[in-house]
Write the structure tokens for this entry.
Amino acid sequence: MQLRWLGTAGFELISGGTSVLIDPYLTRNADATPQQNLSPSDFAHVKAIFITHGHFDHTIDVPQIVRMSGAPAYASPAVCQSLAARGVPWNRLKPTWPWKRVKADPFIFGALPARHVTFDPHLVITTLWNSRMKLMEISRLGGHRFRTGEVFGWLIDVEGKKLFHLGSACMIWGVSNNIDVFMVPVQGRTDIAEVSAELVRRVRPGLVIPHHFDDFYPPLSRTIDLAPFEVAVRRRVIDVPIQIPTINSLIEL
Ligand SMILES: [Zn+2]
């Protein structure tokens, strides 16, 4: 199978002729690094869309991708309501709850209960200060339209492999064992290197693919240096390969 990082928490998973998306987010602002040259029309082929939570950097492009592809979107009931209010027809929305399993052949997706990372005060204050000239623009990316909803981690079975994707760096339910690939987010706290490394320690996967470390919507985001994260993983004496993805490049698993 192949996996393609789309920036932020977004991934395309490809097995045989079938593609599915997790948290696709393409519409970055002009200052974002890296830029994303793909648009919703490049995803007319996808079979299903899986969403971890409702924030703009996980769902803003979902209505357009559903329109282009006709694919169903699996998300919490609250996020489905937000997507419906943003024009997604209810027959394409699949309200989902923890422990539900969804077949999108050859993929099986299981929703695990998760939590959103808690932004720390230092990060909140510096982000607000950096954003003070763009508060009108940024206010359109928050509130009811992009409410968090219930947060899921997605446990994926495909081709005899187990993949685990978290959209935000907090987990209440450890996945017990045998995770081959862990897609771990690295953004949202001043001490995120330690927080994300601790998630890796708990999951103990065969391969780590960090994501969400990019500057996807400055000044709300920042580029996260992954060196401290790698150091924090090694300090936990975990000899796991860490593959840092580049945007839109295929990773063979
Ligand atoms: Zn979020």
Q: What stands out?
A: Residues 53, 55, 116, 168 surround zinc ion (CB under 6 Å). Residues 2-252 form a domain with the Metallo-beta-lactamase; Chain A fold (CATH 3.60.15.10).
